[in-house]
Structure formats: C-alpha cells, structure tokens
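Board notes (copied after class):
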Amino acid sequence: MRLGIDVRCLTDRYYSGIAEYTANLLPEIIAQTSENDFFPLFCNSFKHQEIARLDWLKADNISFINPGLPNKLFNYPLERLLNWPKLDKLTRADVFWLPHFNFAAFSSGFPYVITVHDLSFRRHPEFFNYRKNAWHNLLPIEKLLRQARKIVAVSEHTKSDIIELLGIPEDRVKVIYSGLSARVSVSEAEKIRIMADFGLNKPYVLYLGTLEPRKNIEGLIKAFDSLKKGALIPSNFRLIIAGAWGWKADKIRKAWLDSSFKDDILFLGYVSAQEKEILYQNASVFAYPSFYEGFGFPPLEAMSRSCPVVVGNASSLPEICGAAALYCTPGDMRSLASALREAIEDKETRARLMSLGQKQAQRYLWSKTASQYINLFNSL
C-alpha cells in the first residue's frame, strides 16, 4: 500500500496540538507496517528543515512530495478555488490521510481519511479572533468531510459534535483515541538547571497548554488569587503557567495584572520536552479548567507523572479522564478554587488521584492508536 500523508503541520518550529499528535503517531504507524508499504509524505514549504530533525523519517520507504510553492498561492487560489493539484495524483497514493483540516483536493471517489480533533471553532467561535475565524471559514471543511471515505474523531464527544454540527452520518465517523508520548529522560545536570531557571523550590499549581480563551486561564488566575487571599492554601504556593501565547489573550494578562499575588504567578512561555517533564514531576497539582477540549493531552500527561489533576467538567474531559481527576465547573471560580484546594490539602484525595491517574494514563497508547488506523487504511 502507498499511504499518502499530509505532514504540513510538521514544518512548524514548535510542536503542540496537531503537530505533536502527528509526530507521535506516524512513527508507530510506519513501525507496524511491512517493507512493502510506502509513505509519500506531502508538505509544501520552501524549507522543511523542521521535518528533517525527525530521524524516523529517514527510512527508505519514506519520500517527500514538496511542490515548494508559497502557501498563500497553494492554499486558497490553487486548492480552494481551482481544486488543483490533486494530492492523490501528486503522491500516487492508494489511500491518503489528513491528520487535520487543511486545503486539499482529491480526484473524485478517491479514498481519503481525515482526522477531526475538535470543532471548537464551530461550537465556540467567540473563543477565536477574527483572523482564526476567517481561516476556518476559508477552509472547505464541509466538503472535505462530505467527500472523505472515513472520518476519525479523537473522542466520542468530538464524534457527536461532527454529527450534530456538520450533519455527517454516524456510520462515517470512527472514534480512535489518541496515545500518550513516552516520557523523556532528563539528566541530573539538566534537572538542576531547569529547577533553578524556573525556581521550582516552592510548591506550585501547574497549567500547561496554549494561552487562549477556551482554556480558562483567566478563571484559573482568579481562583488562585482567591485561595491566596483567604489563606486557604500555604502562603508559599505559586501558579506556574507554561505554554505559548495564543490569541485573544488580553483578559489573561489583565487578570494577572489585577492579581494581588501577581509576583507568585509565573508565565514560562513555550517549554521543551525536558522542561515539561520536570514541571509535571514537581507540581503539587495540575489544573486544566478548560471550557472545551476535543481530547486533552496535558491532564493525561500529568496523571502519568503521578500528579493530581483538576479539570473542567465539560466537553470530552470527563470521557478521557474518567474517575482519575477532580472536576470543577469551568465558568464558576468558586468551584475551581474549591477543587484546587481539595487537590492540594486533602491527603486522601491526593493519594486516590495519583493512583487512579497512573492507571487512566496507561489506557492511551500510540501503538494501539496506530494499529486501529492501519486497520482502517487497509479496509479502504
């Protein structure tokens, strides 16, 4: 089989979300296939040195198809308006996989699979800025899903959104849960460096993810502020917020500036895999009070490091985290503050969450995800 794959997301400098999903799943898919399978990978970039850093892409049965056109020309004028070039013809693939929505054209009836991670932009357009909403409106989403032979949803919640919001028949959507990345080893010297750089000598609540409205970081800051004001948690506790700044982040900055404890709130920006490992390992509690998630990697990553987790009781998070998390109502600051305090102060709750979290995280394996994808591709 020649499986064509859209790897344009792997040209990003920093991997998160879709890029991280693709970078973790692809080597598992390739490892589980035979030497007679070939993988023409489609990217469109003048330079793809970011992809070249991935050693597993140097296998003999992998090739790159790169037209080398500016994306401003390729995406909308060619793919969207002229419906050209056809990616199946360009890659000579038997089956093609799109790991996410993107501009793409295929020959009529060609079997391709598209993965949908979430429909937050349809469910909550208010969480996105004008540019993001304009981009989503330009993408031929309905057409891509309508013509796809099969659609993969990363959770039952995402599947129900696809059916409800886009009118896709249920039998065309298959749920395949994501996996968890392997833990990275960190040398003792590197650990000491990270601990010193981030000042991890005090207990802290950790958030990790992109800083955008649907993640409810503004609410997290206010909940942390109320706990400190009421002396409901030890005075030396801090809130560490790791992740790249996203869109519509002004309210997050304002909440921080308005906080009486802003000196105890640290914004780290994008962190490396090694830094992420140490942050998870040393956190007293991981907070992810999101309003909407299609799957939600960070809570499971924290669980796998025996860190108690507090998440929003919304969208896919109860489905993915099960009984291994403490839940709050995302829009209710008191609910979030109460859950954080319990996760910090109650020893029995902490022990229960740490034990259940380890077991819950072990359910999500990239090898299992890959085998389900391979069965799907072979069926087409």
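Comment from the instructor: The CA atoms of residues 241 and 267 lie 5 Å apart. The mean pLDDT is 93.
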